[in-house]
Amino acid sequence: MWPKNILFYRVNHEDFTIDKNTIEQQVSEFSYKPCGPTDKQRFGWTSVFPGVKEQVFIDNNLLVLRAKKEEKILPASVINDEVKEKVSEIEIKEDRRLKKVERDRIKEDVLLDLLPRAFSRKSYTTIIADLESGLFMVDCGSFKKAEDVLSLLRKTIGSLPVVPAIPEKAIESTLTEWVKSEYEPSGITILAEAELKSVVEAGGIIRCKDQDLKTDEVINHIDANKFVTKLALCWQDRITFVLSEDGSYKRIKFSEELSEQNMDIPKDDVWGLCSANYQLIASELVAMFKDMTKQLESD
Name one GO cellular component term (predicted). Predict the structure, then answer.
């Protein structure tokens, strides 16, 4: 349940609210249902924590939802081979070349025939929303996946005016300055990992790992018109992560102090343990994000 990647979104409409009295009913109407024989995929809300039946966690200003996606796996090579075989049989039998529309129809028939026998891939995406600050945190590594689950929530509650929470000042400019200068951002430790990308097309990408970033070797790359587009950081000795130029926080790791804070709660109390952990996760991520944003936007 501890998130590994987080994309932050913020509410951009001051009158937006979530009706805590109706959201459970709204979510239940968009529950996940398994794929049928001819379904390519299904997407819907599932149990908010593994091991419980409830689909909504809402306590004071914290909302947690979890979506489940099931996709049928059909390799393109398998489909193409099957289509080629059927097309070849018909063309030989009828002594003519099939038109594109006929080939497309055969492909549709092949898909319908193969779908019931296809393997399923299942994935989960969690939304952690701090309703007081208006921050929505999506536990995933791509904006496409985040937008999919936010669209599901938008459909569920009728409206969701959120946008990516990205500083106005270019993140890569700030990260580059942090590495190049003697300045140390308050409460933030620069770790020994970064990616530098040239501003010139085809100018190259440099990836550094387990390397002191304050060396002349790295600074020379910056002087040669490369920007720091990814940087490993540690916030308050509590959370480590890699911050990217697009505003994504990846490879998040919480300190042992945090991850073990609720270990006194019995493991068989799934609801109590997960609730306490998500309260902790949300408060730490919100505090980290606010501090990081403040420092990224400062001159």
Answer: bacterial nucleoid
